[in-house]
Amino acid sequence: MKYCWGLFLSWLLAIPMSFAATLTAAQDPWPPFITGDPNMPGISVEVVTAAMKTQGYDVQFKVMPWARALDEVKNGRVDLLPATWYTKERTAFLRYSTPYIENELSFIKLVGNPFEYDGLASLQGKNVGIVRGYGYNSDFMTDKNFNRPESGDLVTNLKKLMSKRIDLTIEDKVVALSIMKEKGIPASQFAFTNNPLSRSPVHVTSGIANPNSQKYIDAYEKGIAAIQQNGTFDAILKKYGIK
Fold it and tell me: What are the entry keywords (predicted)?
């Protein structure tokens, strides 16, 4: 019996074993980039999943408020943020990938409001609702001529806008329209400025506190190059109507 067990063990050890390591990623709902729909989980979810899979990693996604997700990655408790804007301040605690897509941040107003963004001076005296923890550009965040009341998400800001507690809010137009549709908020009540505040490249990031963060970013860089070359990246964008 011992001889048979020894033969079986030798045979088992001879079989090539290949198990994918599992990473964690977290982000707030941010359709069409991050959603809670398993059939359409979001552009960023699918891009990161496909890229990391080519390098032998599975990715387990957690949906949570942005400020919490940022803190979890910053402190190394979660491995990746799949969709991060660049700010100089964040480079102190995040490692950034090269960008894979770009957001255009436009101001959202109520229909009938004649406001058009024409530089920061045009925001004089206004209340502009922002999302807590988002990486808006530093000039926008430090200008003292208008107010920036914070909320936890865009939906709250849209409700504030409808009740006229704020004058404007700000978001990528594609993201805002997706959120409105998902939450049953009538897009017909809102309009977008023609001129954006900024264009923000989107990156994958990992917390410097995570001892494997550079390895994960390097793996992602190899993976994104692979899926861009084999057509998977373009197929994901087309699936979500971006390309």
Answer: Signal
Q: What is the rounded CA–CA span in Å between residue 192 and residue 209? A: 39
Model confidence, pTM: 0.75
Considering only CA atoms, which of 60, 51, 141 is closest in space to residue 101?
51
Residue 162 CA: distances (Å) to CA of 8, 88, 131, 155, 231: 70, 34, 16, 11, 42
Is 123 in contact with 145 (CB distance < 8 Å)? yes
Digit-coded pLDDT (tens) for 44-82: 999 999 999 999 999 999 999 999 999 999 999 999 999
Q: Which residue has the tokens 């990655």?
A: 73
- 8 A C-beta contact, residue 111 and residue 188: yes
pLDDT digits (tens, 9 = 90+) for 200-210: 899 999 999 99
Residue with tokens 């979810």: 45
Pair 90, 137: CB distance under 8 Å: no
**Domains present along the chain, CATH in parentheses:** 20-101+201-239 (3.40.190.10), 104-199 (3.40.190.10)
